[in-house]
Design a protein that fits this description.
Length: 171
């Protein structure tokens, strides 16, 4: 039987091989300032009503802020926004200032400007899952724009390439 440490390392390595989009979860601090975190553990859950899942570690500051406010924003990043993903992936105390133009308001919730999609969500349920909480949010406002997704694969950011549209294709 593998040790817990061995499984933990292999578990992280295995999931690094799962290509996923990159999002930023945003919420407001009690003083009204913006707080956010980079997240790849998000997914669509339902169309009717429109529900999303955001899985957040219990030790993250975002966790307590979302738990207390009952609201969060979700921005699906464009491939040109790896700098924003890195900003929100850094510990809050180590972040520099974010350019104010990087944020916009979506009906009272800050979201990332230029993202390919942004949502303002109201928490409808929260479920503990190990050392994380699965927040289920009902999408109350949504904005969709053009662009290509920022992708996270093997602990690196990248873009999406549609091989069927490649000029090098033989078809």
């Amino acid at each position: 039987m593998q040790t817990a440490a061995s499984i933990g390392d292999k578990y992280r390595d295995a999931w690094s091989r799962f290509a996923t989009g990159v999002s930023v979860i945003t919420t407001l601090e009690p003083d009204g300032s913006v707080h956010g975190m980079t997240a790849s553990s998000v997914t669509s859950a339902s169309l009717d009503p429109p529900l999303v899942l955001a899985v957040i570690g219990e030790t993250r500051q975002s966790h307590v802020l979302i738990e207390n406010s009952g609201r969060f924003g979700m921005s699906i990043l464009d491939e040109s926004q790896s700098d924003i993903a890195l900003h929100f992936a850094s510990p809050a105390e180590k972040r520099g200032d974010l350019d104010a133009s990087s944020l916009t308001d979506l009906e009272g919730m800050p979201v990332i400007s230029g993202s390919i999609a942004a949502m303002n969500c109201r928490v409808t349920a929260a479920h503990t899952a190990g050392d994380h909480t699965v927040f289920i949010g009902e999408v109350e406002y949504i904005q969709v724009d053009d662009g290509n997704p920022l992708v996270w694969f093997q602990r690196q950011f990248g873009g999406f390439s549609d091989a069927s549209n490649s000029e090098d294709s033989d078809s």
